Amino acid sequence: MSEISEKVHITPLAERPIDIILLGATGFTGQIIAKHLALNAPLSLKWSISGRSTTKLAALFSSLKAEPAAVNLPSLAPLDSTSLTTLVSTARVAICTIGPATLHAEPFLRACVEAGTAWLDLNGEMPWYAEMLRKYDSLARQTGAIIIPTCGFDSIPSDLTTLTLRLHAHSTSPTTPLTRVSTILESLKGSISNGSYSSILSIFDAFPNPLDFLHKPYILSSPTLTSEQTSSLHPQRTGISVQKITDPDLIFANKTRTQDSPQLDAKGGALASMGMIEGINRSVVLRTSALSTLHPTSLPQPEFDYREYLLTPPSRCPGKAKATAYATSFFVHRVIPRLMSTRFTRRLMQKGVNKFQPPGTGPSDSMQEEGYWRYRSVGETEGGKGRGVWMDWRRGCGGGGLYSWDA
User: Belongs to which family (predicted)?
Assistant: First the structure.
């Protein structure tokens, strides 16, 4: 557990000249976020871009300046010009796209916590995050720093749809809380960057038990709660799970995975639990739920099961959907983790990724533009009543790709 030195002076947020500092701005995801801010941020927002290479920073600034629709250009904050704590002390919020976080991000997080600067990032490296919360949660409480993990495709759709269901259930019947939430990835078309692959592989090199979060759903909640509060948390279901869809007009399939194709009733299809993706999103959803009980005006104790599934559309062949769902769930729960647990296999996977998507690169502009995904969360209350909420991202929302969502 870290403690703040009495010599550290924390600049009040109202006195800081920068609203947002973008750390790792010259990387693939950092450039996307920088472009989004340059094109969309109001003039009243003051922001800066930071990175290790002054040459790359200057090149990024030039590319932003050359954008015809740019309305708000950043200032430059090279990392070699000052200490990390001094650098982040100038900003109210730091957005970190440095990765893999397991290997490179801790000094930046610590600097933000010491400076009382809010921290947001996009990584899904749960073992690293659990370790960081154990180290710096107490210090963040002292300085007022807010740590918000995985603020991108992991895990905002899952977190926001679940929160929407909880708020709706509470407003409809305050004494009847949710007992179960199932979040379904109904459709997905897209790819991830080389850096995202590297982040996934890095946790296997750095941690002896990198997949503990699959079986410890409250891995991000425990560092913040007391042992008594942790022991009172509702047990969660983990492992392989397959569910047949029996209700009509509840879940919908998009067989062609294109943005404008019709949504088809998925009754007769099946749901396959999503392994590592489920584990990442579930850890964040349950942290949000657990922390909400600490607020004086919190919702009722969130004792509900949370699972996350991939949709297998219905088929004319009896039993095909459920068999496919089981094979999918088995593959993501058992096969992929086993492959990644072997150092030799990880090296082969990294070489393959580097060959087809070199370091520092990601999906093309056209692939991002054509990307599409659709999430749906279905909640049940104590009375057995269900309610669904969906969230999708497509071209009409400003770009369909996973990385457009990160921006």
Answer: Belongs to the saccharopine dehydrogenase family.
